[in-house]
Specification:
- About 5% of the residues lie in helices and about 35% in strands.
- It is mainly beta.
- Strands 3, 4, 6, 7, 8, 10 and 11 form a 7-stranded mixed beta sheet that branches.
Length: about 290
């Protein structure tokens, strides 16, 4: 006679000494004495794997601490899982890039472990939010995956160039804007797609200049907390400046177009008057 004990029941009781015994019940329902027990040492807890930290070839330094220049990741960045990691061909691997619940967080599709070398391509849209910060990069083995690998501590510096300046489509020769050329529906404010653009980002567009009424020059916000859309990731932003907004600025004076971008869902913004994108200046004409 064979009796099966489920693996779940064994694991639920953990490691340690266990005893197996039985008794016999006859047809009349009489229960016999217990048998002599058989001792069994159970080691149900899996032996810890060696899962060393991943690495980023485009970053400087060596794992487990590296620094990434985001200019090297405008088309995405590769993360490699070391070949010495204890992973079997019938398993699969997921990459954990930052915190999946936060801006820039990303979990990769599962990669079959039989596919070697083990490498993942992190999209550029998941990189911008980490500028000026340090994120943890790790991987986990499936099925299971409760315990991720030793993490890589990856510091991401800030982009130092390559960002576009906002423009007005009706501007003449990129030096002046005549109100005569602005339709009643308003002027078209353009901001080309930029490196590391992603839907986790928020945009504030503003005009700075002196008003017809006189006094100190000031900033007028045209668009605030605009969430970048999937379409804008590919095409850039296109917004409307109402014509009455432009008409309140002093003629023959200069206006400055300012673009502020929050890379992390609005958690942090550049200070007012210090946009993180280049400023574009135009003379406003009648």
């Amino acid at each position: 006679m064979t009796e099966l004990v489920s693996g779940e029941a064994i694991r639920a009781r953990g490691d340690g000494q266990r005893y197996l015994y039985y008794h016999v019940t006859d047809r009349a329902g009489n229960v016999g004495a217990l048998s002599r027990p058989a001792a069994l040492m159970v080691q149900a807890t899996p032996i810890p794997r060696d899962l060393p930290p991943p690495s980023v070839p485009a970053a400087s330094g060596t794992s487990p601490r590296q620094t990434l220049n985001p200019a090297q990741a405008v088309s995405g960045v590769e993360v490699q899982v070391p070949a010495k990691a204890v992973i079997y061909d019938d398993e699969s691997i997921e990459l954990l890039w930052g915190d999946s619940g936060e801006a820039g967080g990303w979990i990769s599709p599962a990669l079959p472990a039989s596919t070697k070398p083990w490498a993942f391509e992190v999209p550029s849209t998941s990189i911008g939010a980490h500028q000026g910060k340090t994120l943890a990069v790790s991987y986990r083995v499936l099925p299971g995956g409760e315990t991720p690998s030793v993490p890589l501590s990856l510091a991401v510096s800030r982009l130092s160039g390559g960002l576009p300046a906002p423009e007005i489509a009706q501007a003449q020769g990129r030096a002046s804007l005549s109100l005569r050329n602005v339709p009643a529906s308003g002027a078209t404010l353009l901001l080309s797609r930029w490196p590391l653009i992603g839907t986790d980002q928020r945009v504030r567009l503003a005009i700075y200049g002196a008003f017809q009424s006189g006094g100190q020059a000031q900033e007028h916000v045209v668009v605030d907390w605009h969430a970048v859309t999937e379409a804008e990731v590919f095409n850039g932003l296109r917004q409307t400046i109402p014509k009455p907004v432009l008409q309140q600025f002093a003629l023959n004076g200069f206006i400055k177009l300012r673009a502020y971008v929050s890379w992390d869902r609005g958690q942090s913004w550049p200070a007012q008057g210090s946009p993180n994108f280049p400023v574009f200046e135009l003379q406003l004409l009648a």
